[in-house]
TrEMBL record:
This is RNA polymerase sigma factor. Residues 25-91 form the RNA polymerase sigma-70 region domain. Residues 123-174 form the RNA polymerase sigma factor 70 region 4 type domain. It comes from the Bacteria. One of its GO terms (biological process) is response to stress.
Length: 191
């Protein structure tokens, strides 16, 4: 609750024209936004661009922010929409290249970043990365960010039941591959 009050105060100061307040808001949220964008994009060269687009959208949308809702899921919702926009543009570009050249180059995955190493081992990351995007995004939001299933549903704008079924499907796929990751799987227990 105290954190939410801090966010509201920074938003008020930002909306009144205080650029330092927006810098503080950025500093309080950049680590979570960057981490999520990093995990959800295949092409790591575009992470900074998507993060920048996210903060441009946050700044222009602050006046529409509903103070009755938690700020972090709100900013994560904006981030997820920016990622979807990026993925659509990327897909269109991919299709155009494929049509023009008759083939597409597959983006190389680089999971050597320190952020990744601190949170998961490489084997788990590879397995999570190979999940379909819809499953991957709920796993990252729920387990990496420790969002409740309700917060994941709010962030993605999908029903709670859909979040639960996607988490179940993701864990089932991980188990089918013979991956036993106590950290993630023990959190769900009886799913």
């Amino acid at each position: 609750m105290e954190e939410q009050m801090e966010y509201n105060e920074l938003i008020d100061r930002t909306l009144s024209g205080n650029s330092q307040a927006y810098a503080e808001l950025y500093d309080k949220t950049i680590q979570d936004v960057f981490k999520n964008v990093y995990f959800l994009l295949d092409d790591k060269d575009d992470v900074d661009d998507v993060v920048q687009d996210t903060y441009i959208q946050v700044y222009s949308s602050l006046c529409k922010y509903d103070r009755d809702r938690p700020f972090k899921p709100w900013i994560m919702g904006i981030m997820m929409r920016q990622i979807r926009t990026y993925r659509r543009k990327r897909w269109m570009h991919f299709r155009n290249v494929k049509k023009a050249e008759g083939y597409a180059q597959k983006a190389e995955h680089d999971f050597s970043n320190d952020i990744v190493d601190r949170h998961f081992n490489d084997k788990l990351l590879d397995s999570v990365d190979n999940l379909p995007y819809k499953l991957k995004q709920v796993v990252i939001l729920h387990y990496l960010n420790e969002y409740s299933q309700e917060e994941v549903a709010s962030t993605l704008g999908i029903p709670l039941g859909t979040v639960k079924s996607r988490i179940h499907a993701a864990l089932k796929k991980l188990r089918q591959k013979g991956q036993h990751y106590g950290d993630i799987l023990s959190k769900v227990g009886n799913v």
